[in-house]
Every structure is written in structure tokens, then in C-alpha cells.
Design goal:
- This protein is of the alpha/beta class.
- The protein is built from 9 helices and 10 strands.
- The protein has an 8-stranded mixed β-sheet with strand order 3-2-1-4-5-6-9-10, sandwiched between helices. Strands 7-8 form a two-stranded parallel ribbon.
- Strand 7, helix 8 and strand 8 form a beta-alpha-beta unit.
């Protein structure tokens, strides 16, 4: 059997780096979507090696960015993929609602919500066409329920609804859609040590488990404390 590949959207962020580590540790390859060579270099610094990683340059906040990557896959210019992880984020800022400018609102909805929506819309068809076991996983955050920082909270709230719809639509398909709900700070390893927060390489165990356990589908995977990284705790979304 050919080695599987995970396409990681938002691969240079804290969550994306964790997903890359998880995919590689699980024996899979990675198709990392990056903005440019500088982004690719940053990922390599955080991961430590380019072994098993293919880079695809694209602007993920564009409504044609991921479509262009999938088109290159279809054309044989990039490796095929069987799994997708998406974790493109926006600003993590505490700007009060009344102080959020129209430009800030639209910029963050574009980066924090639309980019993840485009990633799903433009890759799910490819996975469905393969007619083999596949998965599509997104990382969301507890700020959507807490609401103390409105900008990221509104992004997460929108993603919650999208996740519910995607979970329903794929309940009986070959694609396992799942949402990883994170409630504490995770950063790339070097910065995590400096800030005394959870390392991306430790958080990677969650996605490793999601990839490995085919019974997890149309679910929210709860990661509300470090103990949840040791054993999957999940609940069907409907």
C-alpha cells in the first residue's frame, strides 16, 4: 500500500506545525501549503527536517488558493493526498466589539473563517472522488464559546457552524470529518518553552490519534486540558 499523504493548510502556524509533526510521526507524508519560501523555511526550522514534506506555494486566504493546489494534484504536479488538516487563524486580539473597524472585521473573517471554508470547499470533492478511506480535520478554539476576545470568538463561532454542516454532510461518506476543539495555548516548541505553554510536538499526539482511529467521525474532539492529549475524548456533533 502506498504511503498516505496529509495536506496541511495553515502549515506554518502553531497548530499547523503540530499537524505536520503528527503526520510525519504516523508514517505519512505531508503536502504543506505555504505562502512562500520564507514560510517553508520557518516550518522546517520548527519541524527540524524536510524529510517526507512536499511544499506547495499558495495564498490560502484567496478563494482560488487551495483550488490551485488541488488542480496541481489532479495534474500530477503534486502528490495525491488522503487527509486534510486546516488551521488558518486570524488575529488573537481583545479589541472590544465597538472598537472593531469594518476593515479589521473583514480582514479577520477572511483569514480566520473564509480561508478554512475555501480549504474545505475546494478539497473535499477530491477526497470524495478517491472513494477510499480519507479524513478532513479542522482545529477550532474555545474562544468561540468564551467570547472575551470578540475578534477570534466570532471567527470560531462561524467555524462551529461550518463544522456541524460538514459533519452532517460526511456522516456516510468515505471522508471522516472531525473538529479538534482546543481550549489552551499551544505554540511551536521553541516558543512554547519560552512562554511555558504546551509544545506543538506534544499536541501532535491528538491528530496522530484522530488519523489512526477510524471510528472517530463527524465528531468534536475535546482538548480542554493536557490530559486530553493522552486519550481521545470525543462526541458526535449531532
Amino acid at each position: 500500500m502506498d504511503t498516505e499523504t496529509v495536506m496541511v493548510v495553515g502549515s506554518t502556524g502553531n497548530m499547523g506545525t503540530s499537524a505536520v509533526i503528527a503526520a510525519l510521526r504516523s508514517g505519512r507524508r505531508v503536502l504543506a501549503v505555504v505562502r512562500n519560501q520564507d514560510s517553508a523555511d520557518r516550518l522546517l526550522r520548527n519541524v527540524g527536517s524536510d524529510k517526507g514534506i512536499t511544499f506547495a506555494e499558495a495564498n490560502v486566504i484567496s478563494d482560488s488558493g487551495i483550488k490551485g493546489v488541488v488542480d496541481r494534484v489532479r495534474a500530477g504536479k503534486l502528490p495525491s493526498f488522503q487527509h486534510v488538516w486546516s488551521s488558518v487563524g486570524g488575529e488573537y486580539t481583545g479589541t472590544p466589539l465597538q472598537d472593531i473597524t469594518t476593515e479589521q472585521l473583514r480582514r479577520n473573517m477572511t483569514s480566520g473563517f473564509e480561508s478554512n471554508f475555501f480549504a474545505y470547499r475546494d478539497s473535499i470533492g477530491y477526497l470524495l472522488e478517491q472513494n477510499q478511506p480519507a479524513s478532513w480535520t479542522i482545529c477550532t478554539g474555545a474562544m468561540g464559546d468564551i467570547g472575551t476576545w470578540p475578534v477570534p470568538a466570532m471567527n470560531q463561532g462561524s467555524l462551529f457552524s461550518m463544522c456541524l454542516a460538514a459533519a452532517r454532510e460526511n456522516e456516510s461518506t468515505n471522508v471522516r470529518f472531525n473538529e479538534v476543539y482546543l481550549a489552551f495555548r499551544v505554540e511551536v516548541d521553541e516558543e512554547a518553552v519560552q512562554h511555558n505553554v504546551t509544545k506543538a510536538s506534544d499536541f501532535a499526539t491528538v491528530y496522530e490519534s484522530v488519523l489512526a482511529d477510524r471510528s472517530v467521525r463527524s465528531s468534536r474532539v475535546w482538548v480542554q486540558n493536557p490530559e486530553d492529549m493522552k486519550k481521545l475524548r470525543y462526541q458526535k456533533k449531532f
